[in-house]
Design goal:
Blueprint (H helix, E strand, L loop, with lengths): L3 H20 L10 E4 L28 H11 L5 E3 L12 H8 L4 E5 L6 H9 L4 E5 L5 H7 L5 H17 L5 E8 L7 H10 L3 E6 L8 H4 L9 E3 L5 E3 L9 H4 L2 E2 L4 E3 L12 E2 L5 H5 L2 H13 L19
Length: 324
């Protein structure tokens, strides 16, 4: 259950974010109100624009230990309004996945999955687990289109899993919210109506999301026709670049850090290769890291020169007219 302390913590964070934005100084109060926890950076798929799936990730691969997870929740769980049990990789590959969900507590856990582990037994566990939201990636409405991006994926298996989960949610009167996520690209853009129909059939929401492309030379291969689904546009030289953001700051650095499977704390979900390690939970507490010098310096650098930071180059914060 959500601890009352998390509601007292949130105003402190909002105040510090507003004060920092106004003063252009890295003011910070309170603890994170939301957090991303990477259970594993391993994946069963080979999605070409994913650092984990494409094999280009430089970090070591592995699974978070139960002891580390318990330490995170024990120290700071009372402050979290939301816990995202995903970052890179497929979280349901973790052999203790359901156990971790239970440790995290009911009513505030969000999980994002590629849907390949939604068998009948797991769907029942999910339905009664107390998870707040389950996001299932579904980037095509037939085998051919789905496989363009979800390489090594099984479209029929994912669809069966989604439909079975929807039935189980009704049967158990579960409060879990099901969301289908659709990365819009040039191959599946024409199937949005079909995805909308499926979402209604399984009583889920549908999130049409702009696609992040890791490799600039591949942008044109993926960009859809509709401008609102494009994260990039061509500059005067004909090069694809991310649409300009109006933000001179970033709320993520005041609200939502990410912890990798081996305990490294990074600023946000765009630091996929952990290039900016703010601290290590095997050596320090989350509070020490959150209020530490490295995080203060990084917040200051974002306030001063956000456009020069590599991980910010693909961030959607502050981009108008784009579906995220």
């Amino acid at each position: 259950m959500i601890n009352p302390g998390s509601f007292l913590n949130a105003p402190a964070l909002i105040f510090s974010y507003c004060a920092g934005s106004l003063l252009r100084k890295p003011v910070i109060f309170g603890m994170p109100s939301s957090i991303g926890i990477e259970l594993t950076n391993l994946c069963n798929l080979r999605c070409p624009e994913c650092s984990s799936g494409s094999g280009t990730m430089k970090r070591n691969r592995g699974f978070m230990t139960e002891d580390l997870f318990i330490n995170i929740i024990s120290e700071a769980g009372r402050y979290f309004l939301n816990i995202n049990l995903y970052f890179q990789g497929e979280p349901m590959l973790h052999p203790q996945f359901i156990s971790f969900v239970r440790i995290a507590g009911k009513g505030k856990v969000t999980v994002s999955t590629n849907g390949h582990f939604l068998d009948k037994e797991t769907n029942h566990e999910l339905a009664v687990s107390g998870i707040k939201k389950l996001i299932v990636s579904l980037d095509g409405m037939d085998k051919e289109t789905y496989s363009k991006y979800r390489i090594n994926g099984d479209f029929d298996k994912v669809i069966r899993g989604i439909r079975d989960l929807a039935e189980e949610l009704i049967r158990t009167k579960s409060s879990l919210h099901l969301e289908l996520q659709f990365l819009v690209n040039r191959y599946n853009e024409s199937q949005i109506d079909e995805a909308t129909k499926l979402a209604k059939e399984v009583n889920s929401s549908l999130n049409l999301k702009s696609m992040q492309v890791l490799y600039p030379e591949q942008v044109e291969n993926w960009m859809p026709e509709k401008e609102k689904f494009r994260r990039y546009h061509k500059d005067d030289s004909g090069k694809f670049i991310r649409k300009k953001s109006s933000a001179r700051n970033c709320f993520r650095l005041w609200m939502n850090p990410v912890i990798t499977w081996d305990g490294k704390v990074v600023p946000c979900c765009f630091d996929k290769d952990a290039d900016h390690i703010m601290g290590d939970l095997n050596e320090s507490t989350l509070r020490e890291i959150w209020h530490g010098e490295k995080f203060r310096e990084f917040r200051n650098s974002v306030l001063k020169e956000r456009d020069k930071i590599e991980i910010c180059s693909n961030c959607t914060t502050g981009i108008r007219g784009v579906s995220f």
